[in-house]
Amino acid sequence: MSTFDRISQEKAWYVLHTYSGYEMKVQQNLNSRMTSMGMEDNIFQILVPEQEVYEEKNGETVSKMKKAFPGYVLVQMIMSDEAWYVVRNTPGVTGFVGSHGAGSKPSPLLPEEVDDVMRSIGINPRKVAIELEVGQLVEITSGAFAGMEGIVEDFDEDKGKVTVSVEMFGRETDTELDYSEVKEAEEGFSL
Questions:
Q1: pTM to 2 decimal places
Q2: For residue range 72-96, what is the model confidence (pLDDT) as tens digits?
Q3: DSSP assignments along 52-110, one per residue
């Protein structure tokens, strides 16, 4: 592969299919292979998405981590021939999701899909450039409340979430939205 081809490729997130129950082992194996085979410039992050869940045990609420997508591992990489080979031949990896077989390269996740997965495990992957203040008037740009305006009640910068009070059927209703679903209201906008 020429230097130009490698530079023209961008890093993206791909989904690996693994044997169920081997996700953590695949993560460890891939981290080891990445280092031992000098692929740090092509393979960047290996992630086993987990969520904290709560269970009742003996009358107590106990939290534990549960795999959000059993049998799958996410890898952020530049899809070069060498990186594809290293990842594909890692013990426990059965293939890439989005590959059509016969050695074809897989399709990366779309940015919106990456955002959804990251938010589902409590990570805000892309910060949205919006300054919010409690009491501020905002316009909702997407989702069920698109086109409506509301007042910011609360926000969580780390999770990229904002609670907005909107008027529905003559009553104030709070709704939690992603930062990407709101924008500052234009002048002249009012409730």
A1: 0.60
A2: 999 999 998 899 999 999 999 999 9
A3: EEEEEETTEEEEEEEESSTTEEEEEE---HHHHHHHHTSTTEEEETT--STTPPPPPPP
